[in-house]
Specification:
Shape: globular
Distance between the termini: 50 Å
Structural class: alpha/beta
Number of helices: 14
Number of strands: 12
Strand order of the largest sheet: 2-8-7-6-5-3-4
Number of domains: 2
CATH architecture of the largest domain: 3-Layer(aba) Sandwich
Strand content: 5-15%
Length: 386
């Protein structure tokens, strides 16, 4: 059957704006696009270790066979969740099938009707979708702006009375996926404590990248005991799949009972959970790999400065570096120039980012040669300044 006319019209509109999304076919170019920051996704030793781990647990099952509340809660789940909680110095960890599922499940279930959620305007789509499903009211604040957040906290806190009590939640990320920057987390923690608000932090792009052992920004700053919930995802720095919500045992119990994206889905396979477990083992002993990535982050910033590209780039101390190049047509053309030179660099187009904020997104990896970072930036500078 043909696509309905109104849906065809939306596709035509995207195409006319040079913003039509299509599934890419990757060539043999140097990777500046994937989230595999530590190279774990292609690590043969990790792959073999997962097999050995499964054999040692006598696990030869291909699938979970059902939701975790029915038949899918195989023994590897509890072992892996305990290891994750220990690594992150959390009371508990609850594995979800993906970062999207974790954010949607948390934000649609935890804040209640009458509660208020204050969220950074650049929060990921998974958080925003969870907010839309929530019965609580949600309000954005300017990106990484603690002063505006404080004004909102003060406003809503003043409305709380004994007769009209409600909770306030604050949602943000420690590394923003389309900017690569980080918030003033210590200041925001103090504000949440001052105004009795629950802070929820997404560490998707910080795990494996930030901190001495890649533990993330929260632990690097020693704030783990002062944050209500953390969401860590495994499809970036750990090179596998899934996510976990870190928090108290009571929070875990609540999510098991009320988070629909956890309850009504088939669990991850034993192999997927084993891969998470082994990836954490590798993370703890691959400190040199984490340091190699951090060396490349420093080199990236030095080269941006050397080549006079600072006005284009959002300053970042993470593995994500973005050059703002307004206009879908222009950013596509520059990305194509970099790709023709052998660099897999992706343009990020509107409406994924706001119109006028289109950008090139460079993802760094522990395995990227330093000279290749210099080369791709020199190519960019030659293209921009020619």
């Amino acid at each position: 059957m043909k696509l309905p006319a109104n849906l065809k019209s939306k596709l035509h509109h995207r195409q006319a704006a040079n913003a039509l999304r299509q599934l890419p076919v990757y060539g043999n170019r140097l990777d500046f696009a994937s989230n595999d920051y530590l190279g774990f996704a292609q690590n043969a030793a990790l792959f073999d270790a997962v097999h050995d781990f499964l054999i040692s647990r006598n696990s030869k099952t291909n699938g979970a066979t059902g939701s975790r509340l029915i038949s899918g809660n195989h023994s590897l789940y509890s072992e892996t969740e305990a290891a994750i909680a220990q690594f992150h110095q959390a009371e508990s960890a609850l594995i979800f099938n993906s970062g999207y599922d974790a954010n949607v499940g948390f934000f649609s279930a935890v804040p209640q009707r009458g509660d208020v959620i204050l969220y950074d305007e650049l929060c990921h789509a998974s958080i925003r979708d969870g907010l839309q499903m929530s019965k609580a009211k949600s309000y954005k604040f300017t990106h990484n702006d603690p002063e505006e957040l404080q004004q909102s906290l003060e406003k809503w806190n003043s409305k709380r009375t004994a007769e009209n009590h409600f909770e306030i939640y604050v949602a943000l990320e420690t590394v923003y996926s389309m900017d690569g920057d980080t918030p003033p987390l210590e200041e925001i923690v103090l504000l949440c404590e001052q105004y009795n608000a629950y802070l929820v932090v997404d560490e998707a792009h910080a795990l494996g990248v930030m901190g001495e052992h890649g533990e993330g920004v929260v632990q690097y700053l020693n704030l783990q005991s002062r944050i209500f919930a953390r969401i860590v995802t495994f499809g970036k720095g750990l090179g596998c799949h899934g996510a976990a919500v870190l928090g108290s045992q009571e929070l875990q119990s609540y999510l098991v009972n009320f988070a629909r994206s956890f309850i009504y889905t088939t669990g991850l396979s034993p192999h997927a959970v084993a891969t998470i477990h082994v990836a954490y083992q590798f993370l703890q002993r691959e400190q040199a790999t984490v340091q190699a990535l951090q060396t490349r982050i420093v080199h990236m910033n030095q080269e941006i400065k050397r080549l006079g590209l600072q006005p284009l780039f959002v300053y970042s101390k993470s593995a994500i570096h973005c050059a703002i190049i307004p206009g879908n047509d222009k950013v596509r053309a520059i990305a194509q120039s970099l790709q023709e030179a052998g660099f897999e660099v992706k343009p990020i187009l509107s409406p994924t980012v706001p119109e006028g904020q289109e950008r090139l997104r460079f993802c760094l990896h522990a395995f990227t040669p330093l000279e290749s970072i210099s080369a791709v930036l020199e190519r960019l500078a030659n293209t921009i300044f020619q």
